[in-house]
Structures are given as structure tokens and as C-alpha cells.
């Protein structure tokens, strides 16, 4: 008599359980769809914001909000991490100065990793010096190309433009470069003795933006360099990412305008009137990270009266390893020296 009502209650309970499970499944599915949609929309918003801020910056309009900017920064940080991983993958394929050829499916897009880019700072009236360097230690023509291909070393003369843009001085350099194809011509840099610190800075900016190398080397055009010894020496510092290599020195700061090495900002160097430690300007090298630092901060880096002092000042306060490499002392020749001043 009492079994049928009991069976009905059990059936009703099971029915309600199935309804509850079905509703729970539907709610869970809708929640998952909603969350996925929000994630997709957030990614789409980030892409849109990047495009929008780039468009507005290009058109000179007002920037987007701070909140939007923070989202863009977060997105770009992820892009940087991906780029860093790609760089690590590239580094893993390297062998010696130059990386291995990539697999066939990666094709002709591969680039060679360079050991060094050497910039020989020169002027309009130093053609004889350039010719002497070409005969003594700087390869020309196909040999210059082989130096880059086989040893990963680029060598170029570095010069600015005449204050009278397009005059005979500019034309002479253009004609010489057409014949030799071994110049970096800094179109936005005026060629003048007082501009030497800015010319050196412009060289590093140009070099790091056009060649991916481990080191960037500045040389004067009255110095003879043993490229093989220079390359071998630089390779010993490949494990140090923040290095400043040269014949380290200090020296007196001259406050008298009549002195040859007069420093207009002499008062910044204290009562002792002594320069901080820096590499001699005849020849010195910096690692890629330091060249990138110069490029990024070009507009706020101070130039002093002398290019070697200016370069040394750019690295004060940074986590930089100063290497006092005596082989870089060109004025005092020693066995195994890299350079000789003439």
C-alpha cells in the first residue's frame, strides 16, 4: 500500500536532480563562453589600443588615457619577452664570430652575427691618412667584404657633412666613397673639430642601428690597428655584456681658455680639477648593450670638450665593467699591442 507513493517521491527527486544538473551545466557553459569572450575582447582591445596610440602619435593628436597606456605597456612587455626568446634561440645557433646557417625552411632570412663594427673617425683634410690606412691594415674591395663574412668585423671611415651642405668638401667625400664604398657618412652631423664628441656619439647610434655586433669600436685615423689581435682580444670579453675596454687614464682638467685641451665645463670636475677614469680616445671598444644605451638616450647625453671624456661620462653611474686593457695603449708600443699611433 505504501510502496507506490515512496516510488513516486524517488522518481520526482531524480527528476529534480537531473533538472538541477542540466541547469548547472548550462550556467557553467555560459560562464565559460562569457570568460572566453572577455579574454578575446581584452586581447582585441589591446591590439586596438596599440594601433590607436600609434595612429594618434603619428597625427599629433592627444594621447590616450593613462589606464590605456598601462595596458599597452603590459602588452608590449609580452612582445619584448617573445623577442628575447627569439634572440636566445638565435644565439643558440651561433658558432664562433658568425652564426651557423639556418635550416632550409628558414631560408635566406638568416643574418650573420658580427663580432665588431670599427669606426675610424676622420675629417675632410685627412685623405692621405685614409689612403695610408687602406694600404696598411684596412682591407679594400672584396677583401673588406670577406673580413665581414669570415671574421664578423666591419670597418668603415666615419665622417659628417660640411657646414656648407653640398659644397666641394661633401662632393669629394661622396666621390671617394663611390670609389671605395668604405664610409659611414653621417648626414645629420656637422663635420667640425668641436663636434667630435657628437660625431662619436652619432657613430655609435648609426652602427648599433644598422649592424648587430658584440662590440663597437672607435679608432682615430692616425692609428694603425692589428685587426687579428683586436678580434682575438675582444673574444675574451664575450661573456661580459656591459664592458668598456680601452687604455684607461685620467688627467688634468684645464680651466684656462688659452690651453689646448681647455674644458669649458671644468668647474664640474671639482677642486682637484681631474677627469674621471676613461679610455684614451685613440682606440676603445664598448659592448652592444652600451651602444644601445647611447642610442636610446642620445638626446640627454652630455658632450664635453673631448670625445674620450664624453664617452667615459656616459657610463658613470651604470653597471659597467671598465677594462684597462694595456694592448689598447697606442702611444706606448708593447709586444702584442693592438695599435700604434703615428
TrEMBL record:
<feature type="domain" description="DUF4094">
    <location>
        <begin position="17"/>
        <end position="94"/>
    </location>
</feature>
<dbReference type="GO" id="GO:0008378">
    <property type="term" value="F:galactosyltransferase activity"/>
</dbReference>
<keyword id="KW-0808">Transferase</keyword>
<keyword id="KW-0328">Glycosyltransferase</keyword>
<keyword id="KW-0812">Transmembrane</keyword>
<dbReference type="InterPro" id="IPR025298">
    <property type="entry name" value="DUF4094"/>
</dbReference>
<comment type="pathway">
    <text>Protein modification; protein glycosylation.</text>
</comment>
<keyword id="KW-0464">Manganese</keyword>
<protein>
    <recommendedName>
        <fullName>Hexosyltransferase</fullName>
        <ecNumber>2.4.1.-</ecNumber>
    </recommendedName>
</protein>
<dbReference type="GO" id="GO:0000139">
    <property type="term" value="C:Golgi membrane"/>
</dbReference>
<dbReference type="Pfam" id="PF01762">
    <property type="entry name" value="Galactosyl_T"/>
</dbReference>
<keyword id="KW-1133">Transmembrane helix</keyword>
<feature type="transmembrane region" description="Helical">
    <location>
        <begin position="21"/>
        <end position="40"/>
    </location>
</feature>
<keyword id="KW-0735">Signal-anchor</keyword>
<comment type="similarity">
    <text>Belongs to the glycosyltransferase 31 family.</text>
</comment>
<dbReference type="Pfam" id="PF13334">
    <property type="entry name" value="DUF4094"/>
</dbReference>
<keyword id="KW-0333">Golgi apparatus</keyword>
<dbReference type="InterPro" id="IPR002659">
    <property type="entry name" value="Glyco_trans_31"/>
</dbReference>
<keyword id="KW-0472">Membrane</keyword>
